[in-house]
Amino acid sequence: MLALMLCSLTGTLFVYQGQEIGMTNVPADWPIDEYQDIEALNYYRALEARPGTTDAEKRYAMESINLLGRDNARIPMQWDDAPHAGFTDADGAKPWMRVHDLYPEINVAKQEREPDSVLHFWRALLRLRKHHRDLLIHGAFAVHDDADPHTFVFSKTHGDRTAVVALNFTAEDRPVTLPAVKGLRGEVGQL
Hints:
alpha+beta; 2 domains; signal; 6 helices; Alpha-glucosidase
């Protein structure tokens, strides 16, 4: 859903390494020793060194590091289910930080074989964005039906063409009001 939103909005698109296969953040149960982000390490070590620091404060710090830490975008890319997630196959070599525990399930090679994978969805979105760049990258943006905080309906217009994007951020059907657009066509769930 967020990929569709990002690819439909104006401006430069940034895709972080692993985002295109749905890699997840560093697991919450990883200890601080698994992190490489010097800012996170310095923060945590300063907290540990402070007299009177409670276990609750340490847990909160780890939750914050896990949520906001830069290592989430630096974890090795998961290419396949081989050792080190295929990031390196050189004898004796290993990545700079631990590979995510989910690499056997979430990796490029597996998603290449699955037509409904996150990777194939991203590729379809990027093709759509490239094909309709006048609308999706440069089109004029307008929000519609903003009464429901669980939906996001907007249009992009360029010349005589308009694209309407209606996103539902819940698991339930939600009614939306689409703008009046001449020749509007499409169906629910269609790219």
